[in-house]
Write the structure tokens for this entry.
Amino acid sequence: MFQKNKELELGLGILAASAVILSCIGFFLSAACGILVLIASLIGLGVYAATEFYRYRKLQKISQDLDTMLSGGAPLPIWEYGEGELSILANQIQKITLRLSESAETSHADRQYLADSLADISHQLRTPLTAMNLTATMLRDPNLPAEKRISLARELQSLLARTDWLVESLLKLSKLDAGTVTLAKECVSVRELIQRSVSPIAIPMDLRNQQLVIHCADEQFTGDLVWSSEALGNILKNCMEHTPDGGTITITALETALFTQIEVTDTGSGFRPEDLPHLFERFYRGSNASQTSYGIGLALARTVIVSQNGTIQAINTGSGAKFVIKFYKQII
């Protein structure tokens, strides 16, 4: 142990030398004095050796526990060290190792999430790209009838539009995840928000003979108009796709002292119970999802709303689906 601990070896050497010198001085004065000094020196030397040995063993135990923790074992058992400077040292070491462990776990989770996301994105893009490749191959046929060529060209244009929407949505999500988007905090008129959100789906709803009913007065909330219209637009698009021809989509706004609420209800088939807990998960496609669904729109909507101190909830009404959005006036 002495060879491993130079400080202990040095301390014992100094005390031994001091004991010899003091004993010699004591014997020079008298035999009894020399014996007393020698005995006191030996006792002091023994106490020092025992104390240092005890401290050394404790430090060795902390080192072993630290190695165990860094190897994936349990955290340092601080309660074993009691009070004193060793306990303070162990406590500080534990804080550092816990932070390192949490950082490693977060890094691993981020890498796993990135890998899963890339796999999901690859899967989502593969379907339209395969269809586009097949359509392009068919269009190269010189004997293809003109009517069929026009139909395939329209299908190719539709696939390109869907792919463009998917890529654009993924880019928006990645910006929100990375925190590179600064959401405005301005007074937003719910009426203007609804108008901007409805505009992109107005023609598809008209082609489906779907009715839009709006109950809105002068409700307002603090947020970002552009991003909020993106979120509400994705919710309305989801309702439109799951509402049959001739159905109705209703938007109702309400403002209280605590929050501004926007409800969107439809007369579609509603949600299946097993899908409700996962509706806002990225790339999740419900059991009644359409073939053109990528499972990204509702996830983007939720991210935008939550980023603005809001909440979103999906509910079955018995005669369709309902989305309840709340923008709170205070931080919740």
Remarks:
- The longest helix spans residues 85-139.
- The CA atoms of residues 65 and 76 lie 6 Å apart.
